[in-house]
Design goal:
There is one protein chain. This protein has about 170 residues and is an alpha/beta fold. Helices cover about 45% and strands about 15% of the residues. It contains seven helices and five strands, in the order E-H-H-E-H-E-H-H-E-E-H-H. The protein has helices spanning about 15-20, 25-40, 65-85, 95-100, 110-115, 135-140, 145-170, and strands at about 5-10, 45-50, 90-95, 120, 125-130. The protein has a five-stranded mixed β-sheet with strand order 2-1-3-5-4, sandwiched between helices. The protein is globular, with a radius of gyration of 15 Å.
Amino acid sequence: VNKVMIVGEALGANERRDGLPFRPDAEAGGLLERLLHKGGYDRQQFVLWNILGCQPPGNKLDGEWYEQEAIEHCKTHFDSVVNRYKPSCILALGNIPLRTLTGMAGEKQGISLLRGFVLHSPGYDIPVVASFHPSYINRGNKYLSGVLIRDIGLAIEVAQLEAEAVRENRERE
């Protein structure tokens, strides 16, 4: 495992069956898997999770009246995954993970402008790299596939640098 946690929004219909995110037989999970392979990676190298551990009503979360309540409800589960795997970097796929992990939102702080940057998660004190969600790429934006592959590589690079810094700090103590 490369200490990168890939975080999406919520379970889709196919993922709901297994209770796990980004399943290879699901639309978004299948594309993510293909892009990971294109980049020379394997899904087993990553921790895959979602902000929500369930499927929201009508598969809609962004801007819905229940968005914040649902995110707060699932925070305990999300926190336990972060505590268990202790990622050195989080790859946030889409606006909801970006907003939830960094607090950044709005017209000038959305995924289109912040993807590819290394951001800070004040709640977790972990670097966050934001990128496009595979569902967005599937909806007529295939040209962004290379961007996601590049952002995956950046998240791995950041995780390696973080792990190296931790090792150096331990050696100094």
